[in-house]
Design a protein that fits this description.
This protein is 83% helix and 0% strand. By secondary structure, the chain is mainly alpha-helical. The chain has a domain of 48 residues. Helix 2 runs antiparallel to helix 3. The longest helix is centred in the middle third of the chain and has 24 residues.
Length: 70
């Protein structure tokens, strides 16, 4: 199982390194999508329903709000 943890940590590190050259608007879209995904998953888990659908809808909504927010 140790290799599994190493792969997961490596993927997270690589994904974070890819965000270093983003513009501020791209960062807002990304953070809005991440916050929306977390919120959508949490709300769906509380009220019941398919968590992946809630996560996807939250991510899409958060990305849109992040894109239009100044």
């Amino acid at each position: 199982m140790s290799w599994y943890k190493l792969v997961c940590v490596s993927l997270v590190a690589l994904s974070l390194a890819g965000c270093s050259g983003m513009s501020s608007s791209e960062q807002r879209v990304l953070s809005g999508g991440a916050i929306g995904a977390a919120g959508g998953a949490a709300i769906t888990a509380i009220v019941g329903g398919p968590i992946l659908l809630g996560t996807a809808l939250g991510a899409a909504g958060g990305a849109v709000v992040g894109a239009v927010a100044h």
